[in-house]
UniProtKB/TrEMBL annotation:
Residues 318-362 are annotated as: Disordered. GO terms for cellular component: nucleus. Belongs to the pseudouridine synthase TruD family. It comes from Aegilops tauschii subsp. strangulata. This is TRUD domain-containing protein. Residues 318-333 have a biased composition (Low complexity).
Length: 404
């Protein structure tokens, strides 16, 4: 199972159309680094993996403060509530004024009202899918850095000794959850954008370390290479990429092999772990180079267009018996009944052609757009495919400058 995307990139600028075609063809042929997207980490000033790191260290009060403290980029009314609570500790005021979607914040405050200063218990008051999302985001954070190192050090053209790969006997598409697939289905708190996607944890038995014999046989390609989400049953690569996991965790004061505080659910060692492809190719990839002059022109059929067309068709079918009866009773046989205006609404493709002709003037220069359509597994991010195509930064600061 996967998700189908149709994405239109407007205002494309390049030295030539051939450069655009080469770039898009490259995405379809080679794929993209299968990074976790910003949805996994949140788009605010306190990314979820920082909260996860505090939980893994056993810093309960620090984790609570990271969830509750004022942060940049929020609505003014929410920021005011956070600042008032930080200064005065007025739990009742904060509970009254925090909006409903701040699930974690409200859950923590309700627990602190009953059990003041019991920060661990307050954290456990957060719905389990959401509180575990903080820990899983730290796993994802390590994975992203490991993927960057793997590509930087060894490239994307070959498998190297010590790589982890899916075995040819396994079916990587048939992922088996190992206790974390529920974490992404909950409406989140604050600016965390939790998608309804499963963390891509595969059957542990379906991977192996590449050895010299495997390399001589040449039976594996870079598409088979995976990297682990750290856990008690996950293997690390047998090359230098493994070091990045331990180095970054150590820098954050976290052990990947020991439980530092005795609370199982907030420990890497209590999770089995899993694997994720380093590279992902878009499935059923299609694209089209388009020109337009009117920025408001519809270049792709939206879900609303499809629903509207369906409703119009249903309305037309429902009215056909009455229209037929009326026609036979009051109109000569050679006369045609005109369809209602609404039922003859053009499709998005037709509207596009009209917009092209209307906008074609000396005052409206022609612009280029690229329309992409592809399918990705549920755990892959279309934003990362677009990042690969545009060679854009994935930083939060840069992403906020985009008009999405």
């Amino acid at each position: 199972m996967g998700n189908r995307f149709t994405i239109t990139l407007r205002g494309v600028v390049a030295e030539s159309e051939d450069m655009i075609k080469a770039a898009v063809d490259g995405l379809g042929k080679n794929g993209f680094i299968n990074y976790y997207g910003l949805q996994r980490f949140g788009s605010g000033s306190v990314p979820t993996h920082r909260i996860g790191a505090a939980l893994l260290r056993g810093e309960w009060k620090n984790a609570v403060n990271l969830v509750l403290d004022p942060r940049e980029g929020e609505r003014d009314d929410i920021k005011e509530v956070r600042e008032h609570y930080k200064q005065h500790g007025d739990i009742d005021m904060a509970l009254r004024n925090f909006p409903r979607h701040l699930v974690a914040e409200k859950a923590i405050l309700q627990c602190l009202r009953k059990c003041p200063d019991n920060y661990l218990q307050a954290l456990k008051g957060i719905p389990r899918p959401l509180r575990m999302m903080y820990v899983h985001s730290y796993q994802s954070y390590l994975w992203n850095h490991a993927a960057s190192m793997r590509v930087e050090k060894y490239g994307i053209s070959q498998v190297v000794e010590g790589d982890l790969i899916y075995t040819k006997e396994s079916h990587p598409g048939e992922a088996t959850s190992v206790g974390t697939s529920e974490v992404d289905g909950l409406t989140n708190s604050s600016e965390i954008d939790i998608c309804p996607e499963a963390i891509p944890e595969e059957n542990i038995q379906s991977v192996k370390l590449v050895d010299s014999e495997d390399l001589s046989k040449g039976i594996y390609s870079f598409e088979d290479v995976v990297l682990p989400l750290p856990g008690s049953q996950a293997l690390f690569p047998g090359n230098e990429v493994a070091e990045i996991y331990h180095e970054m965790a150590k820098k954050d004061g976290i052990s990947l092999t020991e439980n530092a505080h005795g609370v199982k659910e907030f420990s890497i060692t209590s999770m089995k772990g899993g694997y994720r492809r380093v590279f992902q190719k878009p499935i059923d990839f299609e694209w089209e180079l388009m020109t337009y002059t009117d920025d408001s022109a519809s270049l792709a059929e939206t879900d609303l267009d499809i629903l509207s067309k369906g409703k119009l068709t249903e309305a037309k079918v429902a009215n056909e018996p009455a229209a037929s009866s009326k026609n036979s009773a009051s109109n000569p046989p050679d006369c045609k009944m005109e369809e209602p205006l609404a039922t003859s609404m053009p499709t998005s493709e037709t509207r596009l052609e009209e917009n092209k002709s209307i906008g074609s003037s000396d005052t409206l220069p022609s612009k280029l757009a690229v329309k992409l359509a592809f399918t990705l597994p549920a755990s892959s991010y279309a934003t990362m495919a677009i990042r690969e195509l545009l060679k854009d930064s994935t930083s939060v600061a840069y992403q906020k400058t985009l008009d999405c």
